[in-house]
Amino acid sequence: MTAVQPQPQPVQDALEVGTTATTVVRGRSRIPWRFLAGRAAFYLFTLWAAITINFFLPRMMKGDAVDQYLSRNRNVSPEAADALRTLLGLDTDRSLLQQYLDYVGLLLRGDLGVSLLHGLRPVTEVIGQALPWTVGLVGFATVISFTIGTIGGAVVGWRRGSRLDGLIPVTTFLGTIPYFWLGLLAIAVFSVNLGWFPIGKAYGVGMRPEWSAEFVGQVVHHGTLPAATIVIASLGGWMLGMRNMMLTVLDEDYVMVAQAKGMPNRRVLWRYAARNAVLPQIQSFALSIGFIVGGTIVMEMVFSYPGVGKLLLDATNAKDYALMQGVFLVITLSVLVANVLADVAYAFLDPRTRQTEA
């Protein structure tokens, strides 16, 4: 009887049979719900903590907005003063906990209160008028500084040991100069001596805000000098950080393998090295969003520029709780939103984060 010979089984590659790597590549990518839920819970808790601190911190200061107002206006009756405290949520007959609950309830309805410093105008209206100036000037300058510094740092790191390394100590030195001194020096040289730019303000005297070529030209002309000083003051940090990260990434194996395969240097630089080196820069940029919205108080004071930073300083001096809380809340929300966008950018640039679960 003839023995039945077993049919030879086709040889399969171990990678085709199914390994962890193959499963990840070929399988449908799962949405990391646990990770997203954890991040959402973290941001919600951070928002609640910021709102709570935002409420109690100004009330630890001595005096309030009504006391400051009464010191400037002696003819206000006690009844009117009590009515002002009730309107501003500073009624002494209600406990701090009751005031806090009232404050949260108003926030949920989008009511930030009224500003005594600005004639009982709604805080949202006051901030809404100052916010575009700060975002337009400081935001534009920060984005320009981040872009130039990141690209320049990547190129300097890629060509390490060349003459381009001389840019690092120069930009770092400019970044160590106190900003108010740099601003005053720029005004003395380019405004007073050369007369190229105005000394301050956001637009010329007699101009009214409107969408016209003349007004836009005035805004650009007045904003060029303060924007340039912001770029110069912050460029060194972005360039130095990106250059140091490039030096670390260039020693990684995948960069050397890409070069060994004969890939063009431009592709290795931007698709492999710079793409991974820029990740810490993105997180730093997200944190600088608070700087954008909060503005630089020193810059707005030196250049007499209207913005949120100057608004916050005036509100602090006047102990205008509602205005202070409104500005702090806008800064907090901007930082949280920026961090959410940074997480999205991380997931886009680094595929490993898309497979991470808490």
Automatic annotation (TrEMBL):
Domain of life of the organism encoding this protein: Bacteria
Keyword ATP-binding found: no
GO cellular component term, pick one: plasma membrane
Localization: Cell membrane; Membrane
GO biological process, one term: transmembrane transport
Transmembrane segments: 36-57, 130-158, 179-199, 219-240, 285-306, 326-349
Residue ranges constituting the ABC transmembrane type-1 domain according to the UniProt record: 131-342
Membrane topology summary: Multi-pass membrane protein
Keyword annotations from UniProtKB, A to Z: Membrane, Transmembrane, Transmembrane helix, Transport
Family to which this protein belongs: Belongs to the binding-protein-dependent transport system permease family.
Protein name from the UniProt record: Peptide ABC transporter permease
Annotated organism of origin: Cellulomonas carbonis T26
Lineage of source species: Bacteria, Bacillati, Actinomycetota, Actinomycetes, Micrococcales
